[in-house]
Design goal:
Layout (H helix, E strand, L loop, with lengths): L18 H4 L5 E5 L2 E4 L4 E4 L2 H4 L8 H13 L11 H14 L5 E5 L2 H18 L7 E6 L7 H6 L5 H5 L7 E4 L9 H19 L4 E6 L14 H14 L2 E5 L23 E4 L11 E5 L1 H8 L14 H16 L2 H22 L3 E7 L2 E6 L15 H11 L2 E2 L12 E5 L7 H22 L8
Parallel strand pairs: 3-13, 5-6, 5-7, 7-8, 8-9
Antiparallel strand pairs: 1-2, 2-3, 4-10, 9-10, 11-12, 12-14
C-alpha cells in the first residue's frame, strides 16, 4: 500500500474493507482544484468527483468562508425545537431552482437518509389522508439508493437478501430499462413498464406507496439513460393507481445540463425528488427531499411529520449548501457541465473506436460512462470471476487518474467506468482526462484481452 501501515489502534475507513480492494488505495495528503495528491507525490485527476460529491474540486474559498462565517454566528441548534435562518435561506434557493411542485424541502445528512425521509413522509401522508394500507415500494433492478437497512432493501442488488436477510425489507423489483444490449431503447422501456403494471396488479394497487427510481442511473447501471417513454409511462401508471413517484437524484442532479434530471421531461415530473452528494459538493454532509407544499400542508394539518435526525438542517451544512448553489448559478456551471460533457463524450466515442474494451458510451452532461466488454463484436460480458473495472482502476493510478468502478451483481448486468469529473473542469482538464484514459485503457487491454500469439 505504497508504504501505508495500519496503526495498532484506530485506522482509516478502509481498515474494514477486504484487503485485496484496500491494497490499491492511494493515501491522499492534499488536493488542488480537480486533482488529489498522494503520499508518493502523484497528482491524480479526480475522474468521478470522489465519487460524485466534489463538484467544485478542492478548496473553494467561497464555500469555506460561508461555513466559517456561519459557524461563528451560529454553530448548531436542534431543528426539532428551534428554527434558524440558514435553513430558510438554503431551502428557498433549492425550491426556486427546482420549480413548481417542489416548494418544501426536508434536509438530511445525506442521500440514504433523504431517500428514507422521503418514504417516511409519503407513508405519513398516506396515513394522514386515509390510506394506511399503502406500504409497499417498487424499485428497479439494477439500481442504487443507499446503505441504510431501508435503502439496502430498495437497491437493485442481487446479493442483498443473502447478506442481510430479514434485517432489511426488500422492495418489489422490476427490470430497469437498460438500453445497451436491448433490441431498442423504446423496447427496453416498454418491457419495464409492462413489468411495472404486472407488479402493481400482483401486489395490489392499493398496497403500493411509491415507485422509487433514478431518472438517470449511477454506478449500479453504468449511467443508464432510459428512453423518455419510460418516465412518462411510469408517471402515467402512478397517476392511474394513486402511487407516488420518487426520483432519486442523489447522483444525477446538477450534472446533466439541467438543475434536475427530471427537468428533461417536464411532463413526467415526480412527486418527490431526492438530492445529495453534489448539493454541498463534499464540504459538508447534506441531503434533501423536495416535495409539494400541498402534500406537506395535508400532513401538517393532521398528524404532522416530526421525524428528525440530530444533524438535519445543521446551520454550517446549510451555509455550505447555499454557497454551493450560489456558485453554480453565478458561474453557470449547469450549462458548463453540458458543454464540457459534450467535449468529453466526443473524446470517449473516439477512444471507443480504437479500444477493444469499450462497447458503449452513454450518459448526459458530466455524468458519463463507458461499458467494458470482453468482446466488442459480440458485446460479451466479462465472467463473474473477472472484474475489469478494478484492473482499469489500477492502471489508471499509474497514468494519473483516480477512477471509480464498484462492481455489482457480479457483472450480470455489465461492467463500466463512470466519468463524472468536477463541474469546474475546463477544456484543458477534459483533454488531459481523455489522453490519460486512452493510455490507461491501452495498458489494461494487455491484461484483460487475450493477445494473439506470434507465429514461430
Amino acid at each position: 500500500m505504497a508504504g501505508w501501515r495500519y496503526p495498532v489502534a484506530g485506522g482509516t475507513q478502509d481498515v474494514f474493507f477486504d484487503r485485496a480492494t484496500a491494497s490499491s488505495f492511494p493515501t491522499i495528503v492534499a488536493g488542488e482544484r480537480i486533482h488529489l495528491i498522494d503520499d508518493r507525490g502523484r497528482r491524480l485527476l479526480d475522474v468521478c468527483s470522489g465519487p460524485f460529491l466534489a463538484g467544485f474540486g478542492q478548496g473553494n474559498e467561497r464555500v469555506l468562508q460561508a461555513m466559517l462565517e456561519q459557524g461563528r454566528r451560529l454553530t448548531y441548534t436542534y431543528s426539532r425545537t428551534t428554527r434558524h435562518l440558514a435553513n430558510a435561506a438554503l431551502t428557498e434557493r433549492l425550491a426556486s431552482l427546482a420549480g413548481p411542485g417542489f416548494e418544501r424541502v426536508h434536509l438530511t445528512s445525506g442521500g440514504s437518509e433523504a431517500v428514507e425521509m422521503a418514504l417516511k413522509f409519503l407513508r405519513a401522508h398516506a396515513v394522514a389522508t386515509g390510506e394506511p394500507e399503502r406500504h409497499r415500494v417498487i424499485s428497479l433492478m439494477p439500481g442504487y439508493h443507499g446503505a441504510t437497512f431501508q435503502t439496502l432493501g430498495l437497491n437493485g442488488d442481487l446479493n442483498v437478501p443473502a447478506l442481510w436477510g430479514s434485517m432489511t425489507v426488500c422492495s418489489d423489483k422490476i427490470p430497469a430499462p437498460l438500453t445497451f444490449r436491448a433490441s431498442s431503447p423504446e423496447q427496453a422501456a416498454a418491457e419495464s413498464l409492462a413489468a411495472l403494471e404486472e407488479t402493481v396488479e400482483r401486489v395490489g394497487a392499493g398496497q403500493v406507496l411509491a415507485l422509487v427510481m433514478e431518472p438517470i442511473g449511477g454506478q449500479a447501471s453504468g449511467v443508464n439513460v432510459p428512453h423518455p417513454s419510460f418516465a412518462r409511462g411510469a408517471r402515467a401508471v402512478c397517476d392511474r393507481h394513486g402511487i407516488r413517484l420518487v426520483f432519486d437524484e442523489s447522483v444525477c442532479a446538477l450534472r446533466t445540463g439541467r438543475f434536475l434530471a427530471a427537468h428533461h421531461a417536464l411532463d413526467a415530473l415526480p412527486d418527490v425528488v431526492v438530492l445529495a452528494k453534489g448539493l454541498a459538493a463534499g464540504y459538508a454532509p447534506l441531503g434533501a427531499a423536495l416535495m409539494p407544499a400541498s402534500m406537506v400542508e395535508e400532513v401538517a394539518a393532521t398528524t404532522g411529520f416530526v421525524i428528525a435526525h440530530s444533524y438535519d438542517a445543521n446551520p454550517i451544512a446549510c451555509a455550505a449548501g447555499a454557497a454551493v448553489l450560489d456558485e453554480i448559478v453565478e458561474r453557470h456551471l449547469i450549462a458548463h457541465a453540458e458543454e464540457m460533457g459534450a467535449r468529453i463524450r466526443a473524446g470517449l466515442v473516439r477512444i471507443a473506436g480504437g479500444s477493444p474494451l469499450v462497447g458503449d458510451v452513454r450518459g448526459r452532461g458530466l455524468l458519463l460512462a463507458i461499458e467494458l466488454v470482453a468482446d466488442r463484436e459480440t458485446l460479451a460480458r466479462f465472467p463473474a470471476d473477472v472484474d475489469p473495472g478494478s484492473v482499469v482502476l489500477r492502471h489508471g493510478l499509474e497514468h494519473g487518474l483516480l477512477l471509480y468502478s464498484r462492481r455489482q451483481n457480479a457483472g450480470r448486468f455489465g461492467d463500466w467506468l463512470l466519468i463524472a469529473p468536477p463541474l469546474v473542469i475546463d477544456e484543458a482538464g477534459c483533454d488531459d482526462l481523455l489522453e490519460r484514459l486512452e493510455a490507461t485503457l491501452a495498458s489494461a487491454v494487455r491484461e484483460l484481452v487475450p493477445q494473439p500469439r506470434v507465429a514461430g
